[in-house]
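Hi support team,

I submitted a single chain yesterday and got back a structure, but I'm not sure I'm reading the token output correctly. Could someone confirm the output below corresponds to the sequence I sent? I've pasted both exactly as they appear in my results page.

Thanks,
R.
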Amino acid sequence: MINGHGDDLYRYDNIRMNFSSNIFSHADLSGLKKHLAERMGVIGSYPEPEPYTLEQMLAERMGISADCVMVTNGATEAIYLIAQAFSNCRPIVHEPTFSEYASATKTCGGERELHFICNPNNPTGSVETPTMNPHALYVVDQAYENYTLKPLLKDIETTESNNVMLLHSMTKQYCIPGLRLGYVTASKHIISQLREHRQPWSVNALAIEAGKYLLENGIPNFPDLHEYLGETKRLARELNAIEGVEMTYSDTTFMIGTIKQITAAELKERLAREHGILIRDASNFTGLTSHHFRVATQDRHENDTLVKAIKMIIDTTI
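Hi R., thanks for writing in. Yes, this is the structure output for that exact sequence:
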């Protein structure tokens, strides 16, 4: 699916508040921007055919072999590489979830099962403890692992297994969706299979520079996760108090809900047009309806502004 994802900010010119992407939109990226400006000269040469130096840094941080790590152009590239490497497997996608699992595996088929598990799940925000069949393959996508306190799989667990691939998103962790940076951890054997299908230079030089900088420096103002999750619960309560709106419990900082009076598409367009607020129309997730929408918690002021705007829209709809 090329179109139909959230964070379609490019479609609007008046957005002041962005609840559409499942990341914190107020990260202080000034240090990273300064660093990339100083390293702009790297665009004059080809990057590493594979981002070896970044993979080595990640491996050292996780305490695993670099042969068990593969950096990709966002976690989405990893999904498509997995679909190519294991095209002789039968995909099992647990809906509703991230649409690219189904899109990537349209031509896959075979006897062995290839399960895709998003944990925390997008769009529901739920965290599950997957039960794994040793005869099946599992892709566990932990792109939103930095937005939950629930226990999740560890990389060392995947490298010691021959049937589990763990996906990570530096895009989400460091709030850099425009740079596209992710990585897979798995056994050496599985990573070797994936490398056979990757295109050279798929991760550009600036993304590699950003990844190395962020591993060493991080971002300075990512909110305390306990407080952030607490604000998410408060936002859910405020939205649930609106007549006709019902939010679903989430283990992370984004959540789905329904609105009765109008469709999610109408709600999204009115919020954008009348209030400069962007949310995610979640109706195109398999298993959801035209009345489902998704929001990601921002700061308290913006959250309160969202609540007031939805109330105003409903009041003028009735």
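A quick pointer for reading it: The longest helix spans residues 300-317. Let us know if anything else looks off.

Best,
Support desk
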